[in-house]
Each structure stands twice: as structure tokens, then as C-alpha cells.
Amino acid sequence: MLRRITILLLIIFAAVLQSSFLPAVFSGRIVPDIALILTVIWVVSRGFEDSLARIVVLSFFSDILSFRPVGLSVIPLVLIAFGVSSFSKRFMMSQRTWKLSVAMLLVFFATIFNGVLVFFLSRLIGYATSGTPDYLTPVLGISIFATAALNVITLAAVYFPIKKLEKFLEMYEFKKVILK
Amino acid sequence: MKQLTSKITKTLIILIVGFFLVFLNPKGLFDPLRDFFIRIATPFERASYNVGKSFRGTIDFLGSISDLRKENEDLLRENNELSSQVAELSSEKNENKMLREQMDLVPKEDFDLVSSFVSAQDPQRLDSWVLIDKGSSDGISEGMPVIVSNGILVGRISEVYSSNAKVELLSSPTSSINGVDAATNSRGIVRGEYGLGLVLGMVPQSDTISQGDDVVTSGLGSDTPKGLLIGKIKEVRMSQDRLFQEAIVAPRVKYSKLDLVFVIKNKR
Lengths: 180, 268
Hints:
The complex is a heterodimer of chains A (about 180) and B (about 270). Chain A has about 180 residues and is an all-alpha fold. Chain A has helices at about 1-25, 35-45, 50-65, 75-90, 95-130, 145-180. Chain B has about 270 residues and is α+β, with helices and mostly antiparallel strands. Chain B starts with a helix and ends with a strand. The interface between A and B is large, with 49 and 56 residues.
């Protein structure tokens, strides 16, 4: 239970960071996508099925705090999770560094996929709801590659701390069960 | 195989629900929920935004240390020049006041302003919108213009919640406002354009717009008062259809670095 609450708080924290801290730090046009990075890390380390609930909750809070239509983030993130899980099963090695390298590669392509999908989805939603394509105004351009590169760097920075935290929470819960 | 089928089924269910939810959004179904969570998250967002800004400031400062010496020399020189300009400016201030009266531009003392802090920004497009920590409980309503301390228009309120409001910045591609070249009185529509900042468009060929002129609000067709500064004309060009002139307008403030803003509730 404590583990779940901690994870929920961390998810909300990540959504708050995404909407306030990161735009303030990266005052250019390119901001790392925490939701996407966490999705890849979770799927790579825990698998598709175990990460699904977290991805849905993270998408919800991301959409709420970033003023996007609720449900918009979950579509690309779940597709990315599905793709990452299929690829990681084929290519993942047991060594930690190899896992990180594959995760970095997956984040790069996932960012481009996410950018393209959100661009077309928002156009579609814009036309369907208000008759204009500018409902959400995302941008598809060269900056998508810069965002992908930034996401790769961010993933490399947070990959091991997040895995350590997961392990710590697992151990904490395991100890509690044993002591009972 | 069974595992794969289960994976595909779950993915499909979430995708269908996701699509369904997305199309429910314009009906405002999630507004109370959004209001609730934003109200809880605002203090954390505000703190997080401030930490981010000071972090950014530290990075900028560290990056500029090597330039400080040269900058110091320049500042000393500039200081001497400025001292001589002070006397000159005091007379120009009176002249400016007179010109404002002539042009019917409204100084900010004439407005009922509500000060507010920026607590979040669009993480996908930094020049699209900002979230402020005042909402309907402070008398904020949709369409109200938002300025910075020195009377420069930055956007308008687009969504209002009980203790927060979303400000659509002028640089957002969905934003458009009537503007006028303050020097020549040529009217046009200022709209946001990605990568270019602001564009003053729909200016008839017969009108004159020149590089370096200030663009201010014309006060037509919205709640935005006349005479709020928008920016300075950087470049004049033909519109794509060659029927109108248009000008690239450089905003006077960097929208991604907004901190304290003022909402104009009404004219006093």
C-alpha cells in the first residue's frame, strides 16, 4: 500500500515538474518529456502489464496539469509502451549498460513517434471539435529531433536513480511482509 | 500467444477509452476535475516554477561570468551616457504624456489591475499559454487582457477556474487581436505565429507601416483597451496572397520568462 501511495505521489510530482519546473529551466522551445521517459523506463524494467496502470495515471495527471484534453496523452503513451515492450523483449540484454543503451535508443524513436502522433491527433481533434486544426497547436518540425536528443540525455540521467528507488520500495514492502 | 492477445486487448481498450475521453473534453466535462487538481497543485507548481527559474538564473549566471568584466566596462560607459540623457528624458516624459493624451492611449493607472504570479507554462510550446494563480474568485473572467508591469500586453484570459486562470499568450497561433501602428495609425490584426513571434497582418497596401514603429492595441472588437503596447515592427513584407502588407512584430517581453503579470479587470 505504502509503495502504491509513494508511486502515485511520484507520478503527481512528475506531472508538476513537467508543467512548471521544466518549462522554467528550459526556457527555449525544447523541454524533456518526463511522461514518455518514465513510460520507457517502466516498460523496460517492469514489463508492459505491470506498467499499464502507472502509465494511465501519469497520462491523466499530465493532461490535467498541462491543460491538454484528458485522454490525449494516454493514446501515444500506451502505443509506445506496447512498442517498447515488443522491442525490448527481442533486444534486451541482461547487462545493465546494454539495457540503458537500448532504452536510450527506444526513447529517441518513441519521442519522434509521439511528436508525429500528437501532431496528427490534435489536428484531427481540432477539426472534429471546433473545425480548426489549431485546437492544441503542437508543432512538427526539426525541434522534434532536439527533443528526442534531450529525452535521451534525461533518460540517461534518471534511469539508475529511478531503478534504485523502485528497488528500495520493493525491499521496503518485502521487509514489512517478512516482519508480519 | 495468450499473453500477446491480452496485451493487444488491453492496448485497444485503453485506446478506445482514450479517444472517447478526448472527444468529451470540449464539452467541459473535465473542468471541475481539472479545477480541483489544479487548485491542489498550484502551490507546488508555483514553488517548482520558482525553483526552476532560479536554477535557470544560476545556469545563465555561470555561463556569463566570462562576459562580466567586459559588461562592467560597457555598463560604466553606458552609465555616463545615461546620466546625460536623464535631463533630456524628463522633458520627453512630459511630451510623451501629451502625445498619449492626443492618441487616446490609456496609461495603466486608469485600470483596475489584479496582480498575479505565473505558476505554470505550456510544456510543449513555451509561447502558447501560462497559468496564473488568480481565478474567478478574484473577479477574473474570460477575455480579460493581461499585461506586464509596464503596460505591455502579453495575452488574454482564455480559461477561468476558481483560483487559477489560463492566459493565452499573443504568440499563440490561435491568438489574434486588433493592432495599430502607433506612428502611422495603420490598422491590422496581430496574430501569433510559431517561430516568428507576432505578425501584424491584413494591413491594406495603401497604408504605411515602417520598421521600428511601435504596435499598440486598437481597442476594436474586444475587451482589450486601446493603446496597450504589443511590440516593435522588425520587418515589413507582403502577405502570401499579395493582397495585404504584413509585419513581423518583436514582442517587448520574453513570454517564456514571465513571472508577475497584471490582469485588467476594467477601466476605472
